[in-house]
Specification:
- This is YkgJ family cysteine cluster protein.
- The protein has about 80 residues and is mainly alpha-helical.
- It has one domain.
- It is about 25% helix and about 0% strand.
- The chain is built from 3 helices and no strands.
- The chain has helices spanning about 50-55, 60-65, 70-80.
- The longest helix is centred in the C-terminal third of the chain and has 14 residues, at about 70-80.
């Protein structure tokens, strides 16, 4: 599965504990990454400053569903079940 451009769910729903440029302490779950553009595109895509956890994310139907809304819901549910 390929990412749906403009989805952004993986940059909003999960917590990220790695340093992100502009977010030195990472980001809490449910908060937009500061590196997510208004069009929900990663501004660090392809950059060495992009956190490994972001670069290593692999979209799948189980995590991303079939719509942006479903992806946000699924990733939020996964995040809350692992806390």
């Amino acid at each position: 599965m390929n990412c749906r451009l403009g989805c952004g769910a993986c940059c909003i729903a999960p917590s990220i504990t790695s340093v992100i440029p502009g977010m030195p302490n990472g980001k809490p779950a449910g908060i937009r990454c500061v590196q997510l553009s208004d069009k929900n595109l990663c501004l660090l895509f392809g950059s060495p400053s992009r956190p490994d956890v972001c670069s290593e994310f692999t979209p799948s139907i189980d995590v991303c569903g079939t719509s942006d809304e479903q992806a946000l819901w699924l990733i939020t549910e996964l995040e809350s079940s692992t806390c």
